[in-house]
Amino acid sequence: MSSDPLVVAAGDRPLPPALAVAAEVRRRRVGRRRLLSRAMLYGLAALLALWVLLPIYLISVSAFSPREFVFSFPKTLVPSEFSTETIGFFANSTGVMPALWRSVQVALVAVVMTLAIGAPAGYAIARYAFRGRNAFRLLIISTKAFPIVILSIPLAVFFLQAGIRDSIWAVALMHTALALPFTVLITSSVFVSVPRELEEAAQTLGSTAVGAFVKVVLPLALPGLAAAAIFTFVLSWNEVFAAVILTLRERTLPALVLTVMTQSPLPYRFAAAFFMLAPSLIVIFIIRRYLLGLWGRVIK
What is the pTM of this model? Predict the structure, then answer.
C-alpha cells in the first residue's frame, strides 16, 4: 500500500486534486481547533492557579519582609531583602503561641472524633440496607442548612452547664458537629467503591468481619479517609465564629486574631494571615498522595 497521504486505501488510487486539497484543509482546521481548545484549557488552568497562588505568595512575601516593605507602594513582586521581623513581631505578641497550640489541639481532636464517628456511620450506610437509609442520608445533608449561630448558642449554654465551656473540648465538639455530615457522606461513598466480594473472600479464608474490615477495606479506603481528615482539619483550623462564642480566655488562633484585628497594625495582619495559612498547606501537602490515589481510583 502506498504511504502517500493523498492515496486512498481502497485500490491505491490517488484522490482527485480538489478532494485532496479539501481533505488537507479540513485536517488542518481540525488540528487548529484542537490546538486552540487545548490552549484555552491550559490558559484557564493557569489563571485559576494564579488566582489561588498569587494571594498566598503576596501574604508570604509580606510576612517575611521588613515592616517598611509592607507600607511601601508600589510593591515589587520580589522584595529586596527578607526578614523575620514581622513574623517575630506576631509570634512574640501576647497569647499568640498558646492560641496556636490550642488550635492544633482542637483540630487534631476534631479529626480523631470525626473519623471515629463518621467512618463507622459511612460504612453502615454503604454496606447495610436498612429501612430509612435514604431518609437518613437526606437528614445528614439537611443539617448543613442550619446557620452555625443556631448551633453555637444552644451548645454554649449546654457546655456552660456541663462545665466544659471555654476549653478546647467545647470547640472540638463543635467542630466535630460541623464536619461530621460531610465525613459521613465522603466515607460512605468511599466504602461503596470497595467491592463487597473482597470482604467475603477474606471471611471465607478465616478472617472475622472486623479483621476483614481492618485488613482489606480500611487500606483501600485510606484515600477517602485522608480527604475527610483534610476537610475536618482545614474546617477546624479556619473556623472562628463558634470559637469566639465558646471561648473567652482559652482562645484559638482564629478567635484571637479576630478579636485584636481592628486594633492591630498592618504587618501583624500579614503575619497572622501566614500563620493561619501555613498549617493547612502543610497538612494538604503531606496527605496529597492519598488524595491523588483517590482521584486515580475515581477516574478509573
Answer: 0.72
Contact 181, 141 (CB under 8 A): yes
Q: How many residues does the chain have?
A: 300
**Model confidence pLDDT, tens digit, residues 256-270:** 888 777 777 777 788
* Rounded (10°) CA dihedral 261, 99, 104, 280: 20
Residue with cell 485488613: 215
pLDDT digits (tens, 9 = 90+) for 75-97: 667 777 777 777 887 888 778 88
Q: Is 296 left (phi over 0), alpha (psi -120 to 50) or beta?
A: alpha
pLDDT digits (tens, 9 = 90+) for 125-181: 888 777 777 777 777 777 777 777 777 777 778 888 887 777 888 888 888 888 888
Phi-psi region of 220 (alpha: psi -120 to 50; beta: other; left: phi over 0): alpha
Q: How far apart are CA 265 and CA 86, in angstroms?
A: 11
Phi, psi torsion values for 107, nearest 5 degrees: -65, -45
